[in-house]
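User: Can you fold this complex?
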Amino acid sequence: MAEDRENAIISEVHKKISDAFDVFDHERNKTVDVREIGTIIRSLGCFPTEGELQEFITEIEEEEATGYIRFERFLPTMTKLLMERKFRPIPEDLLLQAFEVLDQEKKGHLGTEELTKYMTQDGEPFTQEEMEEMLSAAADPDKNVIFYKDFVSMLTVDDK
Amino acid sequence: MLLNETRIASYFQIQAMIMGCGTSIETENQGKPSAADGPSKNPSPALTMKAAILIQRWYRRYIAQLEMRRRCTWNIFQSIEYAGEQDQLQLSSFFTFMLDNFTHLNGNGPDLISHLLDSVVEPWTEEGRQAKYEQISVPESYTGPRLTFPLSTTDANNLLTAVKEQKTLHARYVLQLLHETKKFLKQMPNVIYLSTAYAKEITICGDLHGRLDDLLLIFYKNGLPSAENPYIFNGDFVDRGKKSMEIVIILFAFLLLYPDHMHLNRGNHEDHIMNLRYGFTKEVMQKYKTHGRDILKLLQDVFSLLPIATVIDNKVLVVHGGISDRTDLDFLSTIERYKVKSALRLPRCSLEQLELGAGTRQGRAQLGSPYSQGRASRSTRKRKGYLARQSSCSSTSSSSSSSSSLCSPCISSLNTPRRNTPSPCNLPSPSGVLQVPFLDSFVSIAPPEPTREELEWRQVVDILWSDPKIQNGCTPNTFRGGGCYFGPDVTQNLLEKHGLKLLIRSHECKQEGYEICHDGQVITIFSASNYYEEGSNRGAYVKLGPGLVPRFFQYQVSRSTRKLTLQQRVNVAEGSALKALQEKLYAHRSELMTAFQQYDENNTGSISIGDWAQVVESVLRLDLPWRTLRPRLARLAPDGSVDYESCFEDVSPGQPVPQVTPNFAETLYRYRTDLEIIFNIMDKDNSGLISIEEFRQTWRLFNSHLGVDVDDHAIDEMARIIDFNKDGSIDFNEFLEAFRVVHKLDVKEQ
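Assistant: Here's the predicted assembly.
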């Protein structure tokens, strides 16, 4: 029984992975561009850091990198990852706390410059494009500040 | 699994500890400000670092999910677009059917569609329409530009200003411009060879599809065409967008002004039958009313005279679609291109051939099960990759297989030279009949030696309709329904054979406006931004200098002043893609329901997600990730299975016409685009009205062609009901409006 359930879960996970992979498999030949791997993993609910992502890619890449990842190499590693819950989801309240850490004066908002500084200089820095996109979504255009509580609820809305 | 959950729990705790030290201290601080130095004022760098990483990880996941939705949306648009191209091919076979079987129908049989079926008139001898524009007077009150030929740069600039100010060029000048363009194009070769030696760089633009804003943006960024700034526009100027006429006018004006520095290649939409479905015919008729027909006639000639290919410095081949394994530039140089009026029209066929064709169609009509009604023809269509995969399995035949899927082979036993054919209007005999492709041909006819005309036609179709693929080989493009897919080996062979090094083509919308494939040997360039929907894609053009190194320039026309966020863009595009899908679902409601119920043995009203996805794909054949899309199309029942009726809930026809059986309504709905095209053809004076009798006849024809079983009584009843003011004629715009989808969801949202 337990084994059946385990198998059923695995087969469900396989389907999810396969569906996500197919969306990026433009040629329908069970390969995707290596640059899309991050999007696929993250869209499956994982939160890898950039470093972890690189490790993952190195693991599934062909010995001689082709720029493409084959499904047969992606599936087992990705399944393992989901089953073992690696790159685990980060709880939402931690996200809010993270903003609060940056909001040193506890104003409830961050200035765009302030946030840009943290996001592009600290951690795994955003590209300029990422930063612009984030600000266009997060910043109040009139006041030039980010009310991060609203932004957090936007990021954490489960659109499934 | 249990183990994992504990692990997560401990992970949370660790995280909470790391993060929490900030928060917990803060809480304490609030009570005891005296202790408030360090962390709350100046959190440690390690802590802000951790906070930043956490936000970055969350944000990147959020963007990834949006990106996933964006890609799904893209796939929906593309699938539906190509399904539409296939529909168009089927519509062409309907015209053939009409001619075969109903030529004497109330005396208006062939006449109905005669202008579609004009025998090819050789533009060299045909001068009847020449002076017509001279007799059209331009009223004093006309405020638009007045042209004098030969055109000057002032004329071209005036035209540009006028279109920016939304002014319409008077029909007289349009006709004159087209006439001059035709005269010019007649003397152009099929393949233009040009050199960049004199100009520093040449600019190549892809599909514009009636998006004037994109053209104006290109000119703004890159300068107007001139001797110093040469351009190639690589086809598909018209259709889909609302300003195709303006684009054509501007491009032709610059063509006449700088004949050596402005080059236009033909695209698959420079085709009068394509224009019927994709909006250009309608646009011309709306803008030019009484002169519309004359303009369309002349455009048909002009389009068929556009060069097929351009070669830069003997090194770069520029064509609209691509190539096939039988593409031969030398042969292409020798053909009479004006004969290929439409890719949807094979050259003339013999009577025997038509008989065979009729047999084929009967075969289809017999497939009368609810599954296959009107569907049989689609079953051959698969997304391109499937095809590619198939082809690699049967690779022995793939590379040698015939490339064009547009046709079952067709022979002409009438080898009389085309140039003696009489003029279009007196053409009741089947000799001028087109033989159109039957995609679902059950009869495979041993291909006889193709005629010269057929070979020429195929060469052109392959150039205008083909797409590249990653796998080697050359396979019919059944996804689009025309042309072929060519692999890197096909590209390599052709380039080698002609001593070329690069192929530039358009024809496919790309998210970034361009794409490079076949190891850098093929470039796709597409210049209509926001093609599927606001924000769906960028447009691009490419410049080649004397070194022939391509440089790409991207842009995106924006209607709103404020930049939309990615999420907003995705929402907009996704909304309209889902609408289109819901319409498809609704149009196939009975088929889907029958199939759903087969899986639902206990009549619970729900089936498993897997079954649901399988049924939807087997009926719609759009090759989409249905499981991923499911949450947006259908609800789950409490037990986690799919409540399958919910996928029709948000869609229903507006103002349902009473007393029409649901089946009939559904059928009408499904074919409304086709019906609209047919109505437009019938409505010669563009009044928007057709007689009830015409309506009946059309519908009956359509019925028997599609093998749909709606009895005469239902049609009569229908006709009676939609004659709203009982004057014996039908306003079919109103009629079609009744079958447009109403989205309950939208109403709720607003």
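The first helix of chain B runs from residue 2 to 31. Chain B has 27 helices and 21 strands.
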